[in-house]
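Predict both folds.
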Amino acid sequence: MSTPATRTLAPRLSAALAIFVVMAAVPPLALALDDPFLMVIASRMLVFAIAALSLDLILGYGAMVSFGHAAYLGIGAYAVALGARWGVTDLLAQILLGMGMSAAFATVTGAISLRTRGVYFIMITLAFAQMAYFFFVAQSSLGGDDGVALQARSTLLGLPLEGDQTLYYTILGALVAIYAGLYRLTLSRFGRVLKGTRENALRMQAIGYRPFRYQLVAYVIAACLCSVAGVLLANLTEYVSPAYMSWHRSGELIVMLVFGGIGTLTGAVAGALVAVGLEELLAVFSEHWRLGFGLILVLVVLFSPDGLTGLMRRLGLRAPGLRNDGEGRGDD
């Protein structure tokens, strides 16, 4: 029997499934068009969709505006470079290494950052990310500011990820798995407490919960998931650089959420695809593509503050036979 909750979630899940099906069709399309660069762009879209999903967990569901989230993207990338030097070439092992490094850094910095609120939280997360950035800049053995090129891509269960198509489907599989995991997490008791903390932390504390613990755990989970995107990005580019963890990159992740709709998992994925796609499309017409990108972002903020998900919801309400099921922010 259908319930209001299932009617609310069904369109979101259908939209996510449609996105995954379309992205799964990209390699055959690139082969048919004889355009391998299309698959490279799509791979980049999927990598940043994973990073945007991880940020959405703390920003959209936990109201923690981190301006240093890209630090974990860089840590994951450097896990590949360090793993290769230590003889660790398996992708899963490198992911575990990146997660471990990110979890350690996030636990310490998150415990400190979560003692603050508002703009202070934003600035302290930015400060910690810059510390990580300059730490890797100072590592001359890893190329310093110039970064380091990888000798080869990782292996997966003993099989090399040399082919672009193999790597592409590996990234897509990781995205689907992370989406499914976060979907279950946000619907669990943990996710509901996190959303309650977002709405009113004092009220959650009054009924017996300790918001700090839930927020810190979410912060660490988000860091670990973002490091997965970093591992995959390093394999995609076969290059690792401190630029991956710059504050500009953190800002780009926030922009992706704004495009898609903050607090919706499907919106995070769609926002990343649109943002990366717009970047590539506008760059074809002008080297000053950021001006057009900024104008589009302003229009989205002014006319559709809820991003693509809000726009689609409003269009759906105007269609015959469709109605509002009461879905709100963070109720993916």
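Second protein follows, with its predicted structure tokens after the sequence.
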Amino acid sequence: MTTNASYGKKLSAGTDFPVMKVTNLDDHTVELGKPREGTDWQMIVVYRGKHCPICTKFLNNLEKKRARLIDMGVDLIAVSADSKQQLQEHIEDLDVNFSLGYGLTTEQLGQLGVYVSDPRSPEETDHPFAEPGLFVVTKEGKILAVDVANNPFCRPDIDTLVDGLQFVKNPDNNYPIRGTRDNS
């Protein structure tokens, strides 16, 4: 029987992003939540893995906006719980030039507060995997934007997302982090 679980508290806008390390395809360690040289923000895309054609399409479409994101100072990385071998197999279907990380652990999935699903069969994949999550982190390490879904077909529209980040990054707009009010 397949069960779905959420391994952690959902992350909130305006709070500190839980900096964590992942390994990219070149076997380099990358810190999630720490924009890399030449950028001051980081977009972290958590995707389900190679078994998900919707993830493949989303990542390939995101590549079309990579240059614009970099021009805005937004570092881009996509990560999953897949193994290195699974990522190497997936790269054949991906046409991306941004960093891809692999091997997110159950503990890291919990820190990210993403929904987690078990595979429906061994043919799908061989491990629990994250459902989609997207985080934009400022240079101060604060979560500017968070989008967490419990299925592959609920994701932000890439054009709207990038246009919104362009607006927020413009200092003339003086746009604060939204959704920080605790209404409990």
